[in-house]
Design goal:
This protein is α/β, with parallel strands linked by helices. It has one domain: Rossmann fold (3-Layer(aba) Sandwich). 29% of the residues lie in helices and 19% in strands. The chain has a 4-stranded parallel beta sheet. β1, α1 (18-26) and β2 form a beta-alpha-beta unit. The model has no long low-confidence stretch (mean pLDDT 87).
Length: 125
């Protein structure tokens, strides 16, 4: 069985609570998970596209783990999606659809307690 690739995108992991806890727990199972921290691997935010695409090709299960900021993923993850999952590789009629068949999940942290997240509070400022 192949490992699950966990792509972690957190700009301040050292000061995180839940994301750092997830990372600590995932690191206990190296036989199950390959952890790939984008901010740690690419502090200059310049991706090795070929290496990233190869990493995706080697895994059937991919989890994107990140904090949710202002209804968006962190900017580095958006940049990664735009630059790595390209037309002609991940999709497009002549691409071979390298992303086809991948099982993808999101592990998103919100940065506040569950009791504060309700429909009523979602629109109050």
């Amino acid at each position: 069985m192949k490992k699950t690739l966990i792509i972690i995108t957190h700009p301040d992991m050292d000061n995180s609570v839940i994301n750092k806890r997830w990372l600590t727990e995932l690191e206990k199972y190296p036989e199950k998970f390959q952890i790939h921290q984008l901010h740690k691997v690419y502090p200059d935010q310049k991706f090795d596209i070929a290496a990233e695409q190869k990493l995706i090709e080697e895994h059937d299960h991919i989890i994107f783990q990140f904090p949710y900021y202002w209804y968006c993923a962190p900017a580095l993850l958006k940049k990664w999606l735009d630059e790595v999952l390209t037309h002609g590789w991940a999709y497009g009629s002549s691409s071979g659809f390298k992303f086809r068949g991948k099982k993808v999940a999101l592990a998103i942290s919100l940065g506040f307690e569950r009791r504060t997240f309700t429909t009523r509070h979602a629109f109050e400022i």
